[in-house]
Amino acid sequence: MGASAVPVIAIDGPAASGKGTVAARVARALGFHLLDSGALYRLVALQAIRRGVPLDDAEALAGLARDLDVCFVAQRVELDGADATMAIRDEAVSEGASRVAVHPAVRAALLERQRAFRQPPGLVADGRDMGTVVFPDAGTKVFVTATPEARASRRQVQLAGRGVHADLRALLDEIRARDERDAGRAVAPLRPAGDAIVLDTTALTIEQATACVLDRYAQRAG
Ligand code: C5P
Which helix (H) or strand (E) holds 146? Predict the structure, then answer.
């Protein structure tokens, strides 16, 4: 099977919209591979912080992106052979990821690495530009969104689960700042592909949102 014949479900959307959870569930239901592209930007930020590379040095960051020694094992991710699953979820790394992601050279350096995930029997790709830039020929494109308030309160619950108490107002401000940076950047800004369906999960459970994506895929595949 040529790579372009392998089905791709592109799931894009803003931070804390639920797209990561939905993407993982859709991949599991179909037995497809999963690409968490945000993890790659997070790994570049983590490596930059560890090596003291400034987050505005596009060339040096692109070098880090090209040379990343990454391994995705089940739900975990390893960087340079050591577990980095928790480290890439730090607030400093989240913030850093959206800063390194503005550089075209960093995005270009990660492009082929992302496309290499397209393997039989299929791929669910989660990110900001899966349907617009990385897999423009994806057969199913979904833009998952929710109000900033709903996203902030979901993030609060998620953090509480890890024993971290976060102020709702501060989370809302962070989410808005990250949205602005992701949607306002010149290269691959966050926006729905022209042929994407927009799925607002504000009033949906994860199960309902997952079922919507699976239905859409079944319609397109049938
Ligand atoms: O999805 P996640 O929150 O892990 O992504 C972290 C950051 O990486 C985002 O805020 C965004 O700036 C960047 N990103 C991106 N393009 C992608 C995935 C993530 O620019 N495809």
Answer: none
